[in-house]
Inverse folding.
């Protein structure tokens, strides 16, 4: 039962989108870095959407929701207008839509605004992108490696002791 629950937890978040209304396009595109802030965000799905159940939320790196219009649904697309357009920074588009067959799709993606004419993104909140080469090594894998090396060393020592004991007997 526990195994099934864990299995379901892994599968369920992806399966509705995979099986039904699937995000097939967006503006801005996923992971885009834009030299000019977008005035609208559009997500397009593989099935027609129910206009009554479309939620599209755009939030900044501090998880503050941007001012935006209600979603306008046109067939498989939903659009929100951003006013004012956001400043520099990384933004998350989260969507939850219901296709006309009644199935729900939800997910999120990010895009980045990096307009050279605007002030740099504030440094508060999660880092936008670590400059290559400057970040420290992640500690998790290092600890794992340390434990692994210690285990191998211990095993080697134990087998060496056994071996010696075997010789002396
Ligand atoms: Cu469906």
């Amino acid at each position: 039962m526990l195994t099934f629950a864990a299995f379901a937890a892994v599968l369920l978040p992806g399966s509705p989108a995979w099986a039904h209304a699937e995000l097939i396009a967006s503006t801005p595109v996923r992971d885009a870095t834009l030299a000019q802030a977008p005035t609208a965000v559009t997500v397009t799905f593989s099935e027609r959407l129910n206009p009554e159940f479309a939620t599209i939320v755009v939030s900044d790196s501090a998880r503050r929701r941007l001012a935006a219009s209600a979603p306008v649904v046109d067939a498989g697309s939903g659009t929100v207008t951003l006013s004012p357009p956001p400043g520099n920074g990384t933004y998350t588009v989260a969507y939850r839509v219901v296709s006309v067959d009644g199935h729900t799709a939800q997910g999120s993606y990010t895009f980045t605004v990096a307009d050279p004419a605007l002030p740099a993104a504030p440094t508060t909140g999660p880092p936008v992108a670590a400059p290559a080469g400057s970040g420290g090594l992640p500690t998790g894998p290092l600890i794992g490696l340390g434990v692994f090396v210690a285990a191998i060393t211990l095993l080697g020592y134990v087998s060496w002791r056994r071996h010696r004991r075997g010789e002396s007997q």
Remarks:
- Residues 137-169 form one domain.
- Helices lie at 2-11, 15-19, 139-168.
